[in-house]
């Protein structure tokens, strides 16, 4: 028995030894790549001022003081923080412990209140010999100072922000005085295949020039980071501090910009595809800003029931729920109920794909849309307008109410509509609440409430604010165990009932 077991173990070891060279030979050799690409990856550190001293002072000054055990503490607090903030070191070029770099008499430049410094670390990579560097917008956003540390240097260099694109989370910065820097070139992320080897280089947790290797786990991931989500997912180790660093193919070309991770997961990182980033970086370099195409429609995805109603064979495409009067789509003759199935010959899978395709086209350029209308397919040419992200952001916030204020209530995201939206939806004036989003699998989703619907009443009471809607759900809804919504959808009125449980 012992002899037989020994023979079996030896046989297994022999198989392992014979197989080991084969397994090892199939792994990528990345030492040359790391040596060549590493010097072009930089460490980015930022500093910004957090003005929270006023809040701290107000908090303590509102507390009861005289006659309490903390009376002496409050006297000392007033002496130091006072009505004008802590006293700075005037004229101290190094800023001192209580002052800013210019040491104003009240702890900051020109006497302004200054809070503590908040520092952060990220990564970036050089794309030109003269010092242009790509990183994430969130790495340098609101920074008072941006410093770049090259791999073979001990002294950080001050960088200038050339341009930012918050919607894509990209930024372009530049260091001066360098004309012969190592740099990386962009590759073709569209040619990537799931399972291909990739290499990430960055500064996780401040550990400069860390190299990790993995594979492309998936493509086209939508994680809710922005309107143009289309991430590459990889299991190459990415951690805080890797943001803005390159994801490389085995030829050392940048096929992604590492941007996000799943905090509770391991081996799940996301990168912006290089094919999406290249045009953005070019625009930032040339114009310091980004211009995107604009159709002027509201859209929604197509489910199986909607596909049946539209006599469609599948659910691919984007359904127009409204067309804004006077905007490019309206001028081109698009109508509510049309389904856009392709742009310039490229198929449109869903609303996310439509947003990306339209945004990738420059304003003023023409786009040929393939449109399905009442079972018939036609081609419509549209001269695109310009997407205004500032106006879009303002449109998501009305009367000081957050669009997602009622997200947890029934799974709905609601907001009041503006006059332009009301007109696009065929209404004489703004009324009710616009359904901006419906959480998948929620009570509202099961009741077939859809983005683009307008809620006019809840339990036969007119509703005009998110706060009023939330109150009605919490009070009358919980009491009755259900809410009945009067909804306006594409000019038609209908009722939807949604059960309300104690947990909602």
TrEMBL record:
<keyword id="KW-0574">Periplasm</keyword>
<comment type="similarity">
    <text>Belongs to the peptidase S1C family.</text>
</comment>
<protein>
    <recommendedName>
        <fullName>Probable periplasmic serine endoprotease DegP-like</fullName>
        <ecNumber>3.4.21.107</ecNumber>
    </recommendedName>
</protein>
<dbReference type="InterPro" id="IPR011782">
    <property type="entry name" value="Pept_S1C_Do"/>
</dbReference>
<keyword id="KW-0677">Repeat</keyword>
<keyword id="KW-0732">Signal</keyword>
<keyword id="KW-0720">Serine protease</keyword>
<dbReference type="Pfam" id="PF13180">
    <property type="entry name" value="PDZ_2"/>
</dbReference>
<feature type="active site" description="Charge relay system">
    <location>
        <position position="138"/>
    </location>
</feature>
<feature type="binding site">
    <location>
        <position position="169"/>
    </location>
    <ligand>
        <name>substrate</name>
    </ligand>
</feature>
<feature type="active site" description="Charge relay system">
    <location>
        <position position="243"/>
    </location>
</feature>
<dbReference type="Pfam" id="PF17820">
    <property type="entry name" value="PDZ_6"/>
</dbReference>
<feature type="region of interest" description="Disordered">
    <location>
        <begin position="78"/>
        <end position="121"/>
    </location>
</feature>
<feature type="compositionally biased region" description="Low complexity">
    <location>
        <begin position="79"/>
        <end position="92"/>
    </location>
</feature>
<dbReference type="InterPro" id="IPR001478">
    <property type="entry name" value="PDZ"/>
</dbReference>
<feature type="binding site">
    <location>
        <begin position="241"/>
        <end position="243"/>
    </location>
    <ligand>
        <name>substrate</name>
    </ligand>
</feature>
<feature type="domain" description="PDZ">
    <location>
        <begin position="396"/>
        <end position="491"/>
    </location>
</feature>
<dbReference type="InterPro" id="IPR041489">
    <property type="entry name" value="PDZ_6"/>
</dbReference>
<dbReference type="GO" id="GO:0006508">
    <property type="term" value="P:proteolysis"/>
</dbReference>
<dbReference type="InterPro" id="IPR036034">
    <property type="entry name" value="PDZ_sf"/>
</dbReference>
<dbReference type="Pfam" id="PF13365">
    <property type="entry name" value="Trypsin_2"/>
</dbReference>
<keyword id="KW-0645">Protease</keyword>
<feature type="signal peptide">
    <location>
        <begin position="1"/>
        <end position="19"/>
    </location>
</feature>
<dbReference type="InterPro" id="IPR001940">
    <property type="entry name" value="Peptidase_S1C"/>
</dbReference>
<feature type="binding site">
    <location>
        <begin position="259"/>
        <end position="263"/>
    </location>
    <ligand>
        <name>substrate</name>
    </ligand>
</feature>
<feature type="binding site">
    <location>
        <position position="138"/>
    </location>
    <ligand>
        <name>substrate</name>
    </ligand>
</feature>
<dbReference type="GO" id="GO:0004252">
    <property type="term" value="F:serine-type endopeptidase activity"/>
</dbReference>
<feature type="domain" description="PDZ">
    <location>
        <begin position="280"/>
        <end position="375"/>
    </location>
</feature>
<feature type="active site" description="Charge relay system">
    <location>
        <position position="169"/>
    </location>
</feature>
<keyword id="KW-0346">Stress response</keyword>
<dbReference type="InterPro" id="IPR009003">
    <property type="entry name" value="Peptidase_S1_PA"/>
</dbReference>
<keyword id="KW-0378">Hydrolase</keyword>
<dbReference type="GO" id="GO:0042597">
    <property type="term" value="C:periplasmic space"/>
</dbReference>
<feature type="compositionally biased region" description="Gly residues">
    <location>
        <begin position="93"/>
        <end position="110"/>
    </location>
</feature>
<dbReference type="InterPro" id="IPR043504">
    <property type="entry name" value="Peptidase_S1_PA_chymotrypsin"/>
</dbReference>
């Amino acid at each position: 028995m012992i002899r037989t077991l020994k023979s079996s173990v030896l046989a297994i070891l022999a198989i392992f030894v014979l197989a080991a060279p084969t397994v090892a030979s199939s792994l990528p050799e990345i030492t040359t790549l790391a040596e060549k690409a590493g010097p072009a990856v930089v460490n980015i550190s930022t500093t910004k001022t957090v003005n929270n001293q006023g809040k701290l002072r107000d908090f303590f000054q509102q507390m009861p003081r005289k006659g309490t055990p903390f009376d002496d503490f409050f006297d000392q607090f007033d002496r130091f923080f006072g009505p004008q903030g802590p006293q700075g070191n005037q004229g101290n070029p190094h800023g001192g412990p209580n002052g800013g770099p210019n040491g104003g008499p009240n702890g900051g430049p020109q006497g302004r209140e200054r809070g503590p410094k908040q520092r952060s670390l990220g990564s970036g990579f050089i794309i030109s010999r003269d010092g242009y560097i790509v990183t994430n917008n969130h790495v340098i956003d609101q920074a008072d100072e941006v410093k770049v540390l090259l791999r073979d240097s001990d002294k950080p260099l001050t960088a200038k922000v050339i341009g930012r694109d918050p919607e894509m989370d990209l930024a372009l910065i530049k260091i001066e005085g360098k004309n012969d820097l190592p740099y990386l070139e962009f590759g073709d992320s569209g040619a990537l295949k799931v399972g291909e080897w990739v290499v990430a280089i960055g500064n996780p947790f401040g550990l400069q020039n860390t190299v990790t290797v993995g594979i492309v786990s998936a493509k086209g991931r939508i994680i809710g980071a922005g309107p143009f989500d289309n991430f590459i997912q990889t299991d190459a180790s990415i951690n805080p501090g890797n943001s803005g660093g390159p994801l490389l193919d085995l030829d050392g070309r940048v096929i992604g910009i590492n941007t996000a991770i799943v905090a509770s997961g391991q081996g799940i990182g996301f990168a912006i595809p290089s094919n999406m980033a290249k045009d953005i970086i070019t625009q930032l370099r040339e114009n310091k800003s980004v211009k995107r195409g604009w159709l002027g429609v509201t859209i929604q995805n197509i489910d199986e029931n909607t596909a049946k109603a539209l006599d469609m064979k599948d659910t691919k495409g984007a359904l127009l729920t409204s067309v804004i009067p006077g905007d490019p789509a309206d001028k081109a003759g698009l109508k509510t109920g049309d389904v856009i199935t392709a742009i310039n010959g490229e198929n449109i899978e869903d609303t996310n794909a439509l947003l990306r395709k339209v945004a990738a086209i420059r304003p003023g350029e023409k786009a040929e849309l393939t449109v399905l209308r009442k079972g018939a397919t036609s081609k419509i040419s549209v001269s695109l307008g310009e997407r205004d992200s500032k106006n879009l952001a303002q449109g998501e916030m009305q009367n000081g109410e957050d669009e997602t204020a009622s997200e947890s209530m029934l799974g709905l995201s609601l907001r009041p509509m503006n006059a332009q939206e009301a007109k696009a939806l065929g209404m004489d004036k703004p009324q009710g609440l616009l359904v901006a989003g419906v959480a998948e699998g929620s009570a509202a989703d099961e009741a077939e409430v859809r983005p683009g619907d307008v809620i006019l009443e809840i339990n036969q009471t007119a509703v005009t604010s998110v706060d009023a809607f939330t109150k009605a759900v919490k009070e009358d809804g919980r009491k009755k165990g259900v809410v009945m919504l009067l909804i306006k959808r594409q000019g038609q009125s209908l009722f939807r009932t949604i059960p309300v449980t104690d947990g909602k």
